[in-house]
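Re: beginner question about structure tokens

> Can someone show what the tokenized structure looks like for a real chain? I only ever see the sequence side.

Sure, here's an example I had lying around. Input first:
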Amino acid sequence: MPSAQDIRVLLADDISEMRSILKKSLRPYGLVNVDEANNGEDALEKYKLHQHALVMLDINMPLKNGIEVLKEIKAMSPDTFVVMVSADSTAENLKNALANGVNGFLVKPYSSAKVDGIIKKLNQHRLAANPAAVPLEARSNP
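And the corresponding structure tokens:
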């Protein structure tokens, strides 16, 4: 049974500080196998190589935006858990993301409560696919 350390995560955001903050917020859950991408093209290339279980995409990125990347990832692997991460949560962006199979939204600025909500949804998703999956839980000392 894979442990949290075995779960591959992809963080795609063109602002390195945002990726760093998000990466730190995932660490208490044991999610340490994290790849980063600074644009949509890079995100897709890394996803094709590693088939990440959790993908977190900024909506506004160079080369390909998060919605375009979402569409391509879901076309390759509909069961991938994809979260849109953005300060730009307009009704149009939300509608497009939902229409293309997004699993969750994380609005900037991040908070531990918001990240915890995403992890709970990820746990539900993992348990639906594999009832023997071990739920991710925050640890006080990452």
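Each token stands for a local structural state, so reading them left to right follows the chain. The chain has one domain: 4-127.
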